[in-house]
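One such shown below:
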Amino acid sequence: SFLTFQVYPNPTNDIIKISTVNNLGISYLEIINNLGQVIFTKKYPGLKEISISLNEYNSGLYFLKINKGFETIRIIKN
């Protein structure tokens, strides 16, 4: 299956960018930690690209859930 969204850089030290590779905009984002806890949620007006700082989070594995779970992407915070 092809990805609808790109997330970079991954791994990251702080900022991640999420961009859409087709016409589907970003309308909702969740970040989930490796314990399954939702640590960030935000609604967007169907944007083509967003940037998020992970500076306040510990190093480790996180999951980005884009548009209510339409796509889930693993990210590593250094």
In short: The radius of gyration is 12 Å.
